[in-house]
């Protein structure tokens, strides 16, 4: 333990010393294994050279992520995914200046694979180790050079919407972020996925609802919306409302879902987006901020992207990430690592994966 602590201090001083001597742009290897995507990315300065992700299709047949299978797949994938990222970036292992990895939150077995890989890599190479919070990384993806236009300036608001989280965050700096509101039950991504399951669609259903919604009428069906004060969200009532509606309609017509799939998807998507946008508007009003970003898997939703952009007409600045930086990816881990490196927030070899990592 003492030896590891001494070694970590040596690595930090060595990094600072070398950094003073050279003005070259740092190269960071980012590793993401928090859920069911194994991803590795190479970041040079604030520019992404490669961002490779292996999706685990095995979970589709189970209707959700099976933690044990996810960690096994990460174990199988991680070396070839890192190799792929190095190859695409035309960078060798010796060129890497620091390694960033997802410490949490996420599935513990999955996080352990990336954490162990990153710790071993840092130890073998004698380079800084940077522990990243997955949810903060989703937000900081906006600072990648080609993330999607101009970069927001601190402070700004961000709606983070993923499979496990739905939050409105006031982003004061790269690590100082305040959660102004969050879901009291299901996350927005979960609402999409659970609704999709009721419609007989595969997991993850969010992208499929998005696809079918584009061919449907969003005003065909009405579902109940939550009455939650302030900036918190709730999606469990909507889920129940969809379930009761589908049960009643399929009793009358066995083919109801098949015959109305596009309209159902469009109506469900419209309802979820209306819930999200109404809270965004309230947050902008309450904080007096005029920049709003979206992040996380659900920010890939085409309807949400369109509705958010409309806020530009009301004088707000909107930030919508490129598709590849919405769902889980290692590029966002690498850019978060860059902020940690520049501010000398290093981890040492005693760092552990945290399934419920706080902000
Ligand atoms: O951020 P993410 O990739 O993983 C987590 O950290 O959870 O988010 C995954 C979630 C899933 O619930 C998925 O259905 C949803 O994002 N999602 C979408 C779309 N693409 C991904 N939901 C709606 N529309 C999409 N296009
Ligand atoms: Zn995520």
What is the count of helical runs? 10
Q: Can you list the ligands bound to this structure?
A: 5'-O-[(R)-(carboxyoxy)(hydroxy)phosphoryl]adenosine, zinc ion
Please tally the β strands and state the result. Answer: 10
CATH H-level superfamily of the largest domain: ATPase, nucleotide binding domain
Proportion of residues in β-strands: 15-25%
**Main beta sheet:** 5 strands, mixed
Kindly give the count of domains: 2
Give the overall pLDDT as a whole number. 94
State the order of secondary-structure elements, H for helix, E for strand: HEEEHEHEHEEEHHHHEHEH
CATH C-level name of the largest domain: Alpha Beta
Reported CATH architecture of the largest domain? 2-Layer Sandwich
Regions with little confidence, pLDDT below 50 for 5+ residues: none
**Under CATH, the topology of the largest domain is which?**
Nucleotidyltransferase, domain 5
Structure commentary:
The protein is an alpha/beta fold and 359 residues long. The chain has 2 domains: 2-141 and 328-342, ATPase, nucleotide binding domain (Nucleotidyltransferase, domain 5, 2-Layer Sandwich); 152-320, Nucleotidyltransferase, domain 5 (2-Layer Sandwich), CATH 3.30.420. It contains 10 helices and 10 strands. The chain has helices at residues 2-21, 67-89, 108-125, 134-140, 188-198, 206-213, 236-252, 256-287, 302-309, 331-342; strands at residues 27-32, 37-44, 47-55, 98-104, 129-133, 156-161, 166-171, 177-182, 291-295, 317-319. The strands form 2 sheets. The chain has a 5-stranded mixed β-sheet, sandwiched between helices. Strands 8-7-6-9-10 form a 5-stranded mixed β-sheet, sandwiched between helices. Helix 2 runs parallel beside helix 3, helix 4 (134-140) crosses helix 10 and helix 5 runs antiparallel to helix 8. The two termini are 27 Å apart. The relative contact order is 0.18. The mean pLDDT is 94. The structure holds 5'-O-[(R)-(carboxyoxy)(hydroxy)phosphoryl]adenosine (KG4) and zinc ion. 5'-O-[(R)-(carboxyoxy)(hydroxy)phosphoryl]adenosine is lined by residues 35, 162-164, 189, 192-193, 204-207, 210, 296-298, 300-301, 327-328.
């Amino acid at each position: 333990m003492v030896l590891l602590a001494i070694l970590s201090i040596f690595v930090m001083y060595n990094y600072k010393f070398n950094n003073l001597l050279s003005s070259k742009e740092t190269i960071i290897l980012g590793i993401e294994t928090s859920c069911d995507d194994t991803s590795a990315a190479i970041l040079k300065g604030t520019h992404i050279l490669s961002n490779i992700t292996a999706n685990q299709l095995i979970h589709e047949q189970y209707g959700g992520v099976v933690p044990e299978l996810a960690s096994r797949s990460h174990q199988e994938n991680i070396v070839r995914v890192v190799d792929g990222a190095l190859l695409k970036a035309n960078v060798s292992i010796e060129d890497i200046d620091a390694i960033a990895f997802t410490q949490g939150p996420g599935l513990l077995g999955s996080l352990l694979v990336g954490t162990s890989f990153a710790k071993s890599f840092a130890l073998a190479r004698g380079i800084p180790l940077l522990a990243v919070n997955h949810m903060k990384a989703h937000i900081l993806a906006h600072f990648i050079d080609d993330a999607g236009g101009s970069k927001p300036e601190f402070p700004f608001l961000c709606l983070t919407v993923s499979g496990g989280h739905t939050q409105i965050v006031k982003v004061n700096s790269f690590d100082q972020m305040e959660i102004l509101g969050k879901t009291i039950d299901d996350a927005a991504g979960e609402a999409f996925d659970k609704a999709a399951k009721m419609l007989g669609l595969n997991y993850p259903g969010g992208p499929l609802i998005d696809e079918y919604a584009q061919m449907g009428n969003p005003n065909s069906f009405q579902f109940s919306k939550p009455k939650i004060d302030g900036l918190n969200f709730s999606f469990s009532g909507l889920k129940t409302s969809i379930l009761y509606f589908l049960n009643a309609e399929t009793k009358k017509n066995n083919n109801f879902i098949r015959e109305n799939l596009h309209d159902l998807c469009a109506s469900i998507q419209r309802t979820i987006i209306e819930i999200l946008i109404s809270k965004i508007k309230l947050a902008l009003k309450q904080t007096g901020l005029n920049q709003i970003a979206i992040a996380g898997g659900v920010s890939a939703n085409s309807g949400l992207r369109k509705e958010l952009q409309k806020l530009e007409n009301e004088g707000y600045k909107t930030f919508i990430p490129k598709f590849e930086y919405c769902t889980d990816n290692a590029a966002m881990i690498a850019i978060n690592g860059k902020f940690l490196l520049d501010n000398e927030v290093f981890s040492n070899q005693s760092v552990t994966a945290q399934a419920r990592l706080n902000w």
